[in-house]
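Work package 3, deliverable 3.1, input record:
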Amino acid sequence: MAAGAGLLLTITVRSAAVRVVAEAGRELAVRKGHIEADGAGRWRVESDHSSVEVECPEGTSLAIANTSGRVECRGEFGDVRITTSSGRVEIDRATEVDVRTTSGRVAIEDCTGSCTIRTTSSRVEVGHAGDADVATTSGRITLHEVTRLNAQSVSGSIHVTARASPDLSIRTMSAGVDVTLAPGSTPATDLRSTSGKVRTTCPSGHDGQVDVETGSGSITVRCR
Amino acid sequence: MPVSDGAGAIVFTDIVGFTEFTANFGDDRALALLERQEELVRAALPTGARIVKQLGDGLLLFFPHMVDALSTCLALTEQYGKESTVELPLWVRTGMHFGEPRRRGDDLIGHDVNLAARVADLAGPGEVLATADAVAAAPTVAGVSFAELGPVFVKGIPDAVRLYRAEPLAP
């Protein structure tokens, strides 16, 4: 178990750049903000500055409320929950993620458990997610290594590289969907578009499930 | 006319992508979508709860009891999921807060109403979000769990608001 497991840091700022670094052996420390205990294992950080920097042990969980500043989470975290309006969000590694943003770009390198992202127009890129749940209005969504995915988009295109035995459910109104399957993967597919083109060169099998439904967006499913 | 209906659950719903859907599929399909949503909501509302008003593709609902609001909205969300297709996209997001809104004719107004509307803005399709006050008013509801999302800032409200995602417990 990581040293910070069970520790929850709540960071509440307005229009501030937030940088949190989690490293093994680190003590809790805050620059340009103040920290106070908020119950067993819970700490609250607040700041009136334009930036705040926090150091914490690996495995620490975060709940961050911001409005427009950039949020960077460097290192390995437990659960990370971030709500912001327009700030860019970057997370290295976390057990679970919940990010809600309007227009800031979202980049998550590795989310081992469930990864929930809600955005209006943010461009989203996820390196690896065990179980992703993504909804966007117009932001482009890219997921590089995903096993389970539930995605909904109004007009933001969705690009997925799936791992073996995928379980993907993707729905869009006008956005295109591009899925690349793992080598040798032959999931069952249900690909439907009201007026968009549907293209696949992959044989359908029983090794997982890929369901894609669009209104006018094109669907492409290809093999690696 | 009373100035308040007393404390209760204030619920906002909104169909994500409704404008795009209308542009793609036309006004008649959009109308059918709204009518199906309303039909499902009216059938699900318990005694005492009401549709306060329709806001384009959204609804403002009032429930005298928070427990009813949670169980009804989660059941509706499940139903939307079952019926939803690209040609009938019941991509409904829901936000709720517990408070005592002021009454203006049949309408409800006040800070609690404004807050509930902002909570709905943060939800994704198929999601039910609730404020800490809503959860406190119904901390245990059979078949429902709450996942804390932490504090969030919402437009027009100075202090951060603690939010939760309400989810049906796995059977």
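Chain B has a mean pLDDT of 94.
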